[in-house]
Amino acid sequence: MRKRLWYTAPLSLIGAAALAAALAVTAAGSTTAKAAGQTLQMAVANSDVDYSDPALAYGVLSWQIEYETCAKLIDYSDVGGASTELSPDAAAGMPVISADGKTYTFTIKPGIKFSDGTTVTAASFKAAMNRDANPSMNSPVNAFMSDVVGWDNVVNKKASSISGVIAKGNKLTIKLTQKDGGMLDKLAMPFFCAINPAKTPVDPNGVNTLPGAGPYYIASRTVGKQLVLKTNPFYKGNRPHRASTIIITMNTNAQQTFLQVSNGTYALDPSGLDNPSAAAQLAKQYGINKSRFFVHPTPETDYIALNTTRGAFGSAAVRKAVNYAIDRPALLRVRGFLGGKRTTEILPQSLAGGVYNQHLYPIAGAQAAKAKSLAGGKCGNVNLWYATGPVGTPQQGILKYNLEQMGCNVTTKAFVGYAIYTAAGVKGADMDAMFAGWYQDYADGYDFFHILLDGRTIQASNNNNLAYFNNALVNKKIDAANALTGPARSRAWGNLDIYTMSHYAPWAPIDNRNVRDFVGPKTKGYLFNPAWGSPDLGTLYLS
Amino acid sequence: MIRYIIRRLIWAIALFMTVTLIGFVLFYLIPADPAKFACGRACDSEQVAKVAHYLGTDKPVYVQYAKFLGRLLPFDFTHLHFKSPNLGRSFVNRQSVNSIVGAAAPQTASLVFGGLVIWMLIALPVGILSALRPRSLLDRISMTGVLVGISAHPVWLGLIFSYFIGYKLKWTPIANYANFFHPLYGQPGGPIQWAYHLILPWFTFAILFAAVYVRMIRANVMETMNEDYVRTARAKGAPEWRVMKAHILRNALLPVVTMLGMDVGLALGGAIFTENVYSLNGLGYQTIQSLNNYDSPTVLGILVFATTAIILMNLLVDMLYAWIDPRIRLS
Fold first, then answer.
1. Taking a C-beta distance cutoff of 8 angstroms, is the pair A81, A73 a contact?
2. In angstroms, rounded to a whole number, what is the distance separating the alpha carbons of residues A215 and B94?
3. Could you give the ipTM of this predicted complex?
4. What is the mean pLDDT of residues B190-198?
5. CB–CB of B45 and A459 under 8 A?
6. How does pLDDT run across B154-168, given as a tens digit for each residue?
7. What residues have CB less than 8 Å from B135, skipping those under 6 apart?
8. Using CB atoms, which residue from B124, B163, B170 is nearest to A27?
9. How far apart are CA A340 and CA A348, in angstroms?
């Protein structure tokens, strides 16, 4: 017996030793940051950055990191306070734009250096663009840059370098095939970070660490677990970089992260408070935008896409009726306290050029009787698609009830995750209405109208125009707005928004989501950048 | 014995093929295009097609499965050389699945084997003592504990433990993992911190299993105590400790070995709830994340690891069982 139960003895010993050792340690040795104003510990609940490579990174969180590590030609600077206006970053000034609007010439500031000591030149930006367009990289940026002369030739392996991007000394010239009033906003995307090509090779899988020319650089990344930012020792600019090191632990549990921010282990969850039920208590305890709890609108719109090509919502009158029928307060309430702001418009406030809050449709609740009268009994059968989850599932229940009140006969279909977009993106799908959301890629109305509502982009599959809305007049107005620049451009998008919603109502907009941030007891310096839709990590420090 | 092992190995390979094939087909049936996700939401069909070609998802499912199996083989038949088995790359972040599984497995193993020690330290004495004194106060208390242990969900237990013990009392960390060998930058590490950070996860993980095993050991011991050979041993005047060791425990604990092998193998595939609640980025947590993102290479990589672990543990238990119990060998 002694021989055959041999395994119990060592197992017991190992267990006892591990327990004894563990219990001997005091709480002081936990993951508490030794911050003292220098090192900030942060945690991201249930997520990691998709990539830390600027050519591949394409998410709110990864761009938050890139904003700290990148030197771009132009940016939405928050030096001296948050701003939604573009200003030069690595460029000495705003570009010189040719009279036909098709050539942009930037002059690069002298003396900007990467974290490895090499100098940022016009060639650093050209290298970044060539790397972005390299077919091996399969970068998401290709969807935005076909207006640049020679870009698609590189993507299609017909050339190795973009002919329309010319670097000469400290001058960078970008040539376009046609006028694009949104080009500057596009160039503010982190895809166009300056790179040191010697240390940022073309790698289809992306690089995890690379020299940065912003106030920080990515010192290390353990995928799925941790990302470390350190200050660029050669950075001489005025962008905020208060903490010398920012350690971000990835993929933590939301409830535990909340507790760890509460007790100061972590300064912040950069992806926002992933605990909606706590928002009301935090607002009561700390106030809003005062000390530890911050709420700001994001450049995002949640909406119900109404399929304009199918029976139920083929009629503009019925689509307008849906905008009267839906209970926006109830739909928004599902997102928790301060989850967003109700809207009846397509564009979020930051993109609408001051033409916002027009309240084209009821914002305070459903008007079922008016909706029913507007629909005139023409609604019929509706196939409502939704993605299951703590938001999607209750929202479909509310919408189903609202639509039934206006006389529709609703059948629901559930999807998991992004499968709904794949299915709904196939032209001819038997979807009449579906919940969707869009977060800006760059701060311009074209990013909403061209991608989501321009009928000329409709294809056999992979559609983003989920309303399958194709109106010649609206398409023409999109082109007209896209030819404008500056404040006139923003206003044009805002006006087009009102025009589209009041005449055709291809969507039933619900809300513009808020980001709710909760910071640690000693965390100071919180500054939200409205153009990015996220806080600037470089302004944070520990008191 | 060798024939027995060969037979088991053939079964193991068949099981492995079946599980991976089902996993592969299930992902193929889901109407979600990973290329669309990987390309970025603004991509048009042409751009999505290019990414699908890069990912290999534009090929028929049997071609994809054949390539998957080919990567797993340790020999390259095209270039005729040995190679390391390769689980492919994640669709979501293009990282090597070998490295994803390699980074997650130690966290799961730490949780499972540490938890195993604790659950056996609880289950063995409590189960045996309860069986020796049925319907005593100790037995009633332990059976009540068993009921609570089986009923309490690990997520609930984890949240309660971390809130009261970690957050309120500050006796242990609230969550997170400390690496045994190579701590992450700015994070605690080493054997002591490793164990310190795992105290709550170990107990959370162990409570359910301890409850199940207490009940099982108690029932087995009580049943064995009524066997004829135990009565005979006592009638022959054998001392009670000898009866207990050589006749009762020896037989009563045989099924426990079988159960241990199965449970540990299964848990190595991912102790999903405990990992999730304590921010341990183990295989269970990775599985959830990958399923949410339809990241089939990572899910299949974890499936391969879990299947292999279960098969190996079962094989080990079978061999151990044959070694412990002469009747198995003879049959």
1. no
2. 27
3. 0.86
4. 96
5. yes
6. 999 999 999 999 999
7. none
8. B170
9. 11
User: How close B15 gets to chain A, by Cα (Å)?
Assistant: 29
Residue A449: both structure tokens together: 């109208």
Encoded tokens for B251: 């037989």
**Cβ B294–A25 below 8 Å, yes or no?**
no
The whole-number average pLDDT for the span B92-119 is: 93
Residue written as token pair 């990864």: A62
Collapsing DSSP to helix, strand or coil, A529 comes out as strand
Nearest to A491 by CA among A322, A499, B272: A499
The CA-atom distances, in angstroms, between A64 and each of A244, A433, A440 are 17, 33, 14
- pLDDT digit string, tens, across residues A160-211: 999 999 999 999 999 999 989 899 999 999 999 999 999 999 999 999 999 9
Query: If you average pLDDT over residues A497-516, what whole number do you get?
Result: 97
Both tokens of A244, joined, read 């010398």
Measure in Å the smallest separation between the Cα of A41 and chain B Cα atoms.
Answer: 9
Other Cβ atoms less than 10 A from the Cβ of B249: the count is 20
**What is the DSSP track for A36-90?**
TTTEEEEEEET---S-SSTTT--SHHHHHHHHHH---SEE---TTS---S-EESS
Mean pLDDT, chain A, as a whole number? 90
Average pLDDT over all residues of chain B = 89
Across the interface, do B43 and A143 touch by the CB < 8 Å criterion? yes
Per-residue pLDDT of A425-463, as tens digits, reads 999 999 999 999 999 999 999 999 999 999 999 999 889
Average pLDDT on A117-131 reads 97
Whole-angstrom Cα distance, residue A322 to residue A318?
Answer: 6
Task: Looking at the complex, report in whole angstroms how far the Cα of residue B65 sits from the nearest Cα belonging to chain A.
Answer: 22
C-alpha triplet B313, B315, B319: angle, nearest 5°: 115
Residue A504 is predicted with a pLDDT of 97
Residues 6+ away with beta carbon under 8 Å from B169 = none
* Closest Cβ opposite residue A418 in set B32, B54, B163: B32
